[in-house]
Amino acid sequence: MVPHLVPRWPVCLFRWRAACTLGACVPQSAWARASRTPGPGSPRGAVGTSPLVRRGGSSSSSRAPEVMLTRERYPVQRLPFSVVSEEDLAAFERITPGRVVTDPEELEASNVDWLRTVRGCSKVLLKPQTTEEVSHILRYCHERNLAVNPQGGNTGMVGGSVPVFDEIILSTALMNQVISFHGVSGILVCQAGCILEELSRYVEERDFIMPLDLGAKGSCHIGGNVATNAGGLRFLRYGSLHGTVLGLEVVCPAPPPQVCTLLHPQVLADGTVLNCLTSLRKDNTGYDLKQLFIGSEGTLGVITAVSILCPPKPRAVNVAFLGCPGFAEVLQTFSTCKGMLGEILSAFEFMDAECMQLVGHHLGLVSPVQESPFYVLIETSGSRAGHDAEKLSSFLEHVLDFGLVTDGTLATDQRRVKMLWALRERITEALSRDGCVYKYDISLPVERLYDLVSDLRARLGPQAKHVVGYGHLGDGNLHLNVTAEAFSASLLGALEPYVYEWTAGQQGSVSAEHGLGFKKKDVLSYSKPPAALQLMQQLKALLDPKGILNPYKTLPARA
Amino acid sequence: MVPHLVPRWPVCLFRWRAACTLGACVPQSAWARASRTPGPGSPRGAVGTSPLVRRGGSSSSSRAPEVMLTRERYPVQRLPFSVVSEEDLAAFERITPGRVVTDPEELEASNVDWLRTVRGCSKVLLKPQTTEEVSHILRYCHERNLAVNPQGGNTGMVGGSVPVFDEIILSTALMNQVISFHGVSGILVCQAGCILEELSRYVEERDFIMPLDLGAKGSCHIGGNVATNAGGLRFLRYGSLHGTVLGLEVVCPAPPPQVCTLLHPQVLADGTVLNCLTSLRKDNTGYDLKQLFIGSEGTLGVITAVSILCPPKPRAVNVAFLGCPGFAEVLQTFSTCKGMLGEILSAFEFMDAECMQLVGHHLGLVSPVQESPFYVLIETSGSRAGHDAEKLSSFLEHVLDFGLVTDGTLATDQRRVKMLWALRERITEALSRDGCVYKYDISLPVERLYDLVSDLRARLGPQAKHVVGYGHLGDGNLHLNVTAEAFSASLLGALEPYVYEWTAGQQGSVSAEHGLGFKKKDVLSYSKPPAALQLMQQLKALLDPKGILNPYKTLPARA
């Protein structure tokens, strides 16, 4: 029996109970752009001023409070790199004329992460336009022992994209050209600084889509996506960047030494360009070197260009937003949906009731379905609208009949699809307005995914304002967030290492898609054995022997 | 207009013009098993005796002519490894009791590749059952400076799986246990020696399929598939193993040295087990080390276990076998099919008229459609038979109306699907019966894919018996094969480096999916720049400092 709450199944319907207010319905991408992207003309952008990214409930102040310096907040020691001198600035001016930024106000946006949790004190930002310029910069910095922080859209969650001390910021913002696009194969080759959303638009005009999509698309750079092995909303369907990235061009600080000196590297002072920018789906000639750099967070080399396989644009996209009575029903809905929607399933996201309360309270978004303990968002992407609608309709009828879902709404037109997605995509934003946020991004066996959230609620009690769980259920990826009015060491102590130990106990990953960056580098060993960690250190030493590239990130400090 | 030659479109029909004779219709997997797999009880298997894998037309002889030793046929020098002594054999007997093979007859099958083109003279084959045994073996061999040749199903095309000289053969044949399978996520964890076809059967019983399939499935090992980054028939749909392999357990000859000695490795004599055998779809904790080993052909470590993501088993599989009047029409059929079949397209293979002649002549297979310059095999896999049939029917009507296809046949039941696939899968076998085969496995921009075949036909003239092109068109992967009555240096000289230079001129890959192994290692530089090659050498030196693991393979000899 289809309950009365969903009167028009399987007709394509849209029940949006209450319209968003204009203010709360700032499109996510516009929000991202306004708050995250330092535009070329105003590099400071709105990071320092936008109320949207500031923590705490108030949005009336015209200026966010200053973020504490990382070196003051965390127990971290500056490594003995050189300090940028006037001569260095002059040299940089020769390499990137007119694109050496030293104005402190302009630097501010690139010194602070968008979550406003870490802050470096870099005195110089370079904006190369070509791979050769990047190579010259790295050669120079290697010679001079100057630390470098590669930076894309600065949208990372773990403090990996901003300096910890005074590292030189190497921004890919001006490396934003599409190099080629092949209309039959869908292979896109572009510079690393292209903004994901702009690439999406570019390939969509040519009947393809990007194989990844994420909330930060309005400002994140494709090079940063690859460097952090971004997951996102299309992962379930199109898989990992390790599969869809076909080629990379990367600059490493140190060149491969001559073969005869392999065991005792005699490093030549040169920024080696590693051109593996192939546009081939298959290439088994030797080791697949590009894989080393995917997810290495800019610590092994600077990605300067990317070749990526774009899937054909689906002709029909449907989004169903459903309410489920419990987590067991969420799981059963997932299994059912994999079977009945099969090849057209492109996303399966979930959020709990507290998430819905937060997007309602802070952003004025209203649930399109009746209040439920859990909500799932299911997206289908297919080549024939009629077939997709039939599949979806059979599926929805089934889950309603079996009580797995108690209410739901369906969207097929683009505007409504976006509105439903906003409920899920803007949770991060709502959380950042709720106070101090403790963020965890965890992979777990799907059947245990929510246990940690319930467990923590009981453990933390009134210490926490909210404990919420949401994320990419289809990928076994939980975003666990805890909010409190202000930072509290005792709350942190109750969370860590408890969360990491709990995760390790389930053979989970303590960083599913956000990476380790600065903030999570010390928890690597919860998910990787000592032998793996040692090999990582060796790879770092091989490719960046002086350790100048994105120091203090990804790997724990050496003992 | 639908031409009269295909009278029953869009009805699901099957026009098999002539039944295969029983002899010629030996199921591919049985053929593979009989000819390639040294079974535990009879390790020599049929390699030495089966007429099916012997070159030359005759199948009456009971014993194939002996294959020339690699060291006699190719200009290769033995490296200064130790020679296995009686003490070594005693030590191996302690590590793998009762599983140390020294009988020359038994060793023969593992010394010769299945194409019967290269032959080593190993005196010992070890059959470990556990990762710990592999670790002990590698530790021992590292200490004693003994070279090791890891071997799976010995089905490689480039001589990577057999010794060149007297390397110890480390077979994964007895490491054939499934470790776990997760019925919701479809994640399979198993030992490296599991045979692909047996894994397929195992997961199919549980409503999943393996993400890869290839002609050698009846004997190839999953560990070997991963070590060689096998592509195969499902690549178009499920992508590369770099995306579908979730975790690996690998044993390296040398352990990571201590962090403090990174630049001057002080190698400890231990076979380090690198356990990255995670069962998570997402895990961004540090560098993705497993990627290093995918496609490294056993030169960096021995893969002992694999965690792999299996897609749900499609409920409907259709195969269309079509005749095309020209290569331009093959390409247009591909573009049309991507658009109209969309998400259900799971394979797009092509073969030319000469391929069809060869499978007819040598294997007695008969074309199910009228003689055409080109044939394509299109497979769909979907979750709803009715929808798939409708899509396929619209597509077929379109390509026939537009003259892209002149004749075709469609199969939906499993037996007929297999018969159509046999036409494509058994080309390799037919070629091996045609005489001496010169094999090339190339990636090219799809629109230039066949130009090289036409070009070579003109270039070689009567020197060649056959010049044929077939392969995974959907992946831009051409299998180019040239046959002649016997080996000829002048024919080889006309082929190489011409084929490689032609490919490099198109920014193609000189090895799309077969790898480099022994036979192609010296052509690596046609597809990779010097900086990449040097980094590969460094990685080899890092993980296998004495170079004991699968020597003479993958990387060119050092100057």
UniProtKB/TrEMBL annotation, chains A, B:
Query: Which Gene3D superfamilies does its entry note?
Result: 3.30.465.10, 3.30.70.2190, 3.30.70.2740, Uridine Diphospho-n-acetylenolpyruvylglucosamine Reductase, domain 2, Vanillyl-alcohol Oxidase, Chain A, domain 4
Q: Which domain of life is it from?
A: Eukaryota
The FAD-binding PCMH-type domain covers which part of the protein? 118-313
Renumbered to this chain, the signal peptide range is 1-32
Q: Which reaction does it catalyse?
A: (R)-malate + A = oxaloacetate + AH2
Cofactor(s), names only, from the UniProt record: FAD
Return the annotated region ranges for Disordered: 32-67
Query: What keywords appear on the UniProt entry?
Result: FAD, Flavoprotein, Metal-binding, Mitochondrion, Oxidoreductase, Signal, Transit peptide, Zinc
Q: What are the Low complexity biased-composition ranges?
A: 54-63
Official protein name in the record: D-2-hydroxyglutarate dehydrogenase, mitochondrial
Q: Which organism is it from?
A: Equus caballus
Give the classification, highest ranks: Eukaryota, Metazoa, Chordata, Craniata, Vertebrata
